[in-house]
Amino acid sequence: MLKLTNKPINGSGLLAIFCDLNIADQKEFHPWLLNEMFPARLKIGFNSCASFEKINGDGQKFLTLYEVDNIVYLYDNPYQSLRENRSSLDAKFHKIFINPSRYTLQLIPPSVEKSQKGFLDYVRVLRKNLSSIDAQKYHSNFISDIHNNIKLPIRRYINVEGEHNNFTIIESNEIDKLNEHQIDNKATSYDNKIDALYKCKIQLN
Predict the structure, then answer these.
(1) Long-range CB pairs of 4-7, under 8 A, 24+ apart, other chains included
(2) Other Cβ atoms within 10 Å of 84 Cβ, number
(3) Against a cut of 0.85, is the pTM above it?
(4) CB atoms within 10 A of CB 142
């Protein structure tokens, strides 16, 4: 069941990490996340953790997402302590990431939310730098569009950290619905657009 709301169900903060990996390093990647990274973050209050692989589109092959109640969790001592005291495997992976991009993101309401925790099987992620001249028009169009077209869970974020100032996620358990759905609303001025479709490989919440 979908719900148009100004109050997020799974939290208003999101950590997104994109990267590529050499083929030799890919085998250990998901086990490391599932056995070490995800449990440690759930223990300190993260709501959900998931890792995805790109099916098509631009940008890096791997995407890992962490949902939190708010971005305070991403700057408070428990999480910062995890980052400062990495295990040997954790330190190894952070050295071998290729083309890493890290985003700390704040949700902008309204959003179309699902009733369940975590992520659906497929996510489409659109990253871009929106021109300040057209920001008002873009966000106004977005709100009008989702009020009139509630078909899939969709959320948009602004960056606190990260190379793109506008970040949109749309989800579905059916890949065809994501291919058909248009995220860009009445395209305004932007640059450095990266649009990609990902499949969920592992998840804990």
Answers:
(1) 4/110, 4/111, 4/112, 4/113, 4/146, 4/147, 4/150, 5/109, 5/110, 5/111, 5/112, 5/113, 6/109, 6/110, 7/109
(2) 8
(3) yes
(4) 20
Radius of gyration, CA atoms only, the chain: 17
Segment 148-201, tens digit of pLDDT = 777 899 999 999 999 999 999 999 999 998 877 666 555 566 778 899 999 999
Cβ neighbours, 10 Å, residue 10: 22
Q: Which two tokens stand for residue 6?
A: 């100004």
Taking a C-beta distance cutoff of 8 angstroms, is the pair 101, 19 a contact?
Answer: yes
* Helix locations, 1-134, DSSP H: 23-32, 38-43, 77-84, 88-96
Alpha carbon distance 51, 58 (integer Å)? 17
Mapped onto helix, strand or coil, the DSSP state of residue 26 is helix
Q: Which amino acid is at 33?
A: L
